[in-house]
Amino acid sequence: MVILRKIKLLLTSGVFLMVTNVVAQDIHFSQFNNAPLSMNPALTGDFDGQFRAIINYKQQWLPYTTYAASFDFKNLLQNSPRVFLAPGLSIYDDKAGDAQLGLMQANLSLASGIHLDLHNDLALGFEGGFAQRSLSLGSLTWDNQFDGVKYNSLLPSGEHLTAAALNYLDFGTGLDWRFYKPAYNSTSHDALSANLGISYSHFNKPNISFYSSPNETLYPKLVVHGTATFDFKNSNGSLVPAFYYASQGPSTELTIGTGIKTQLKMKSLYTGYVRESSLMFAGYYRIGDSFIFLTQLELKNIGFGVSYDFNFSDYEMPSPFGMGGLEISLKYIVPTLTHYTHRGSKAKL
């Protein structure tokens, strides 16, 4: 019995260290295209409409619960034919494990760019924000508090934690290229769109250590992402391949996959007020970690996505029997009365 109790204390400390390492990394969404501001600040304002709001929720195996919300505007420079300027706000909150290791962060983003021609846009984005990391010290037990017979909370832990919360500023930047070729006519259904982006976040390397020394800096994160939509000519179907690559310190991730989208209702080509309605089923493979299945429904101005990660990685303890993470996204876009042919440019009525 004594041995079992000691093993339990050691496991508690080990899980704390494991979760601390996870929290030292960024928030993570499998529906990366439904969390654009968390992926690249240059994607701020990259939608058809006037205003966009997105809510994201994810429950992972630790348990690790993540909430996010983002809000962005299309273009503040409505009278500018070639230049666009789009502001945004993103808020994140997550909690992990018995220690309730958490992150709360609010970022302001700004994307500015130029319409290179009728089909190509290029945007540069910046973001800056305030973050707080926290943990619940009262819920932790340590092997130093084992007195040989049982756990004794009066014994010192031996851990030199300076505070249960720490604050810091965080900054990032990104670049995004977008291509759009409209359909030949209202019934041909042969449009083509694509985007390719790169972002670099945490370039100021903030200190995220709860200990007095040594400092532990948040690794800068490099992200490369891309998505395309190929319409099947003279049909209501589209192929939507996508990829996401991230590198942060010793960790790397590559997710690739594709979706099949069916158009349920056409968007208005001239007023822009009526948005397309569609249903998409997609599958993605996160290399060496999990399969992701996504169902996404777009009904005019509202979008709803639900996905699940089926995990097969070596994390047997936190992820038993292939259990992964449920993720839900909800999007709302305020339409514009002027049709945007591609990012920011508009056709006259």
Question: How many angstroms separate the termini?
Answer: 79 Å
Shape: globular
- Widest sheet: strand ordering: 1-2-3-4-5-6-7-8-9-10-11-12-13-14
Beta fraction of the residues? over 45%
Which class best fits the helix and strand makeup? mainly beta
H and E string: HHEEEEEEEEEEEEEEEE
Q: Specify the biggest β-sheet.
A: 14 strands, antiparallel, barrel
Radius of gyration: 23 Å
Task: Describe the protein's architecture and organization.
- By secondary structure, this protein is mainly beta.
- It has helices spanning 2-23, 36-39, and strands at 51-60, 64-73, 83-96, 101-115, 120-134, 165-181, 192-201, 221-231, 237-248, 251-265, 277-286, 290-299, 302-311, 325-334, 340-342, 345-346.
- The chain contains 2 helices and 16 strands.
- The strands form 2 sheets. It has a 14-stranded antiparallel barrel.
Short summary of the structure?
This protein is mainly β and 349 residues long. It is built from two helices and 16 strands.
Helices and strands in order, then pairings?
Layout: H1 2-23, H2 36-39, E1 51-60, E2 64-73, E3 83-96, E4 101-115, E5 120-134, E6 165-181, E7 192-201, E8 221-231, E9 237-248, E10 251-265, E11 277-286, E12 290-299, E13 302-311, E14 325-334, E15 340-342, E16 345-346
Antiparallel strand pairs: 1-2, 1-14, 2-3, 3-4, 4-5, 5-6, 6-7, 7-8, 8-9, 9-10, 10-11, 11-12, 12-13, 13-14, 15-16
